[in-house]
Amino acid sequence: LESRREGELVEIFRTTIDPADFMIRRDPPPVGIVTVDGHIGGDPHGAVDIAIVGEGYTAVEVAKFEADVERFTKTMMNHEPYHGHRDVINIRGVLLPSDEAGCDEPSRGIHRRTAVGCTFDSLGSERYMLTEDNRAMRDIAQAVPYDVLYIMVNHERYGGGGIYNLFCTFTSDNQWSEYVFLHEFGHSFAGLADEYYTSNVAYDGFYPEGYEPQERNITALADPDQLKWRDLATTGTVVPTPWDKPDYDRLDQAYQQQRGDINDRIGQLMRSDGDADEIEDLKAEGEQLSWDHQQEVDAWFAANATHNQVGAFEGAGYMSTGLYRSQLDCIMFTKGVKPFCAACRQGIIEVIGRYVE
């Protein structure tokens, strides 16, 4: 248990699990489970075993699930630092077909009967997607060896979520799905913090003033001489590191307002059985807006003098001021299949090492 006020980790519970205990449930797995190997790098006892649980794939979509597992496996294996550790990473897909495709979208008036019970609008955030049916998820996942769980939702909408040491979710068919796949795993596997601070989130006061975050990739920078990732800092870089933050803030806040207005309008129309063509036009407009904005942001970053420096850039962890990230951009900051920042890469490698020691 972590005390966010005191910044200390305090152990409150410990127990030993004996696999031979008669209280261990030995229910047979659900009938009809499909498994597929995405990438097998090593023995499960000395590797990171990742299970991708399919959600919202019907019985006639098994081939799609298998193809999606292959596609996202390639995404991870081609991305550092996972590519450099591919010999100690295993990825397997596991699916119990659902009665219906997709997942719940309460703010849009949509509810589906699915195997794992994933839903958008989790914690009051329209793009945040979780499940509360841990039992169903675990019953399906038990069909393969796993240390870490993904839930891959058969859907084209942008969204996902990640909870450290529990699971993460992403959708299969959005233009940003590969980005979300990598971003959310950063949360659930390596305990990385979100580095963005301009978009609406479900959290308030997540990092109280005066608190040094436990996450490896953000810092309150109480002492610049003791920067959390000082061994990675670019020689001669000023800490805190100046950047054109006001320009970026204006650019991104305008986009967030437009994005929110479009999503609100889509929800209103769908709940009231509005015009189908108008709904589809708004969805397409939202996706194009997201794409155009990210291209503009990426070009802005590339032209910035501090783009490749490692220092301490203010703005991180949902906080515009008072928290810092290690580089100007990162897959934990903005959209796109782009590199992890130096602090994130180091953190991921550290966690991989714990599994293979």
Query: Which CATH class of the largest domain?
Result: Alpha Beta
Largest sheet: 6 strands, mixed
How many structurally independent domains? 3
Residue share in β-strands: 15-25%
Uncertain residue ranges: none
Give a description of the structure.
About 30% of the residues lie in helices and about 15% in strands. The protein is globular, with a radius of gyration of 21 Å. Strands 3-5-4-6-8-7 form a six-stranded mixed beta sheet, sandwiched between helices. The protein has a three-stranded antiparallel beta sheet with strand order 9-11-10, with no helix packed on it. Strands 1-2 form a two-stranded antiparallel ribbon. The protein has three domains: about 20-190, Collagenase (Catalytic Domain), CATH 3.40.390; about 220-245 and about 305-355, no CATH class; about 245-300. The chain contains six helices and eleven strands.
Secondary structure elements and their pairing?
Blueprint (H helix, E strand, L loop, with lengths): L1 E2 L4 E2 L24 E7 L7 E8 L6 H16 L11 E7 L38 H8 L6 E6 L6 E4 L3 E5 L5 H14 L27 E2 L25 H27 L4 H27 L10 E4 L2 E7 L16 H15 L1
Parallel strand pairs: 4-5, 4-6, 6-8
Antiparallel strand pairs: 1-2, 3-5, 7-8, 9-11, 10-11
Helix pairs in contact: 4-5
Provide keyphrases for this structure.
six-stranded mixed β-sheet, three-stranded antiparallel β-sheet, Collagenase (Catalytic Domain), alpha/beta, single chain, 357 residues, 6 helices, 3 domains
Concise description?
The protein has 357 residues and is of the alpha/beta class.
